[in-house]
Amino acid sequence: MTVTDKPKSSATGRAVSIRVYLFLVLVCAALASSCSLFACGPYKCREAREGRALYAPLVTALEDFRARTGSYPATLPELVPAFIDAIPVSTVEDGPKELEYAQSDNGYVLSFRYYGPGANRCAYSPGSGWSCDGYY
What we know:
Helices cover 41% and strands 23% of the residues. The chain is an alpha+beta fold and 136 residues long.
């Protein structure tokens, strides 16, 4: 064994140890944060957060309409332009889709869908706030 062989051997061993360590760190991180890597649950995904933020002004407009008229509108276009400039539309390709509005016994249900991972739906109703569900 020469002097040059010894550092090669220990350097190789160190490189293998570092690779194994990094692999284990990545596996543990993937398992611990499967929310962000594999599936994040319908309420926590970026798309759900963006949809709730996008439609927050619409919820405000619906409440303002009710405060002024005593009831919620039959359709969303009734809010334009007195209560909101336009019905919000997502410009993000994977953003919220399929905005729906319906009057209900408790006032109304405003909902949107987004896809990935799985099919998900978030709905807002007065008194209950936002709730999201979905499947993968």
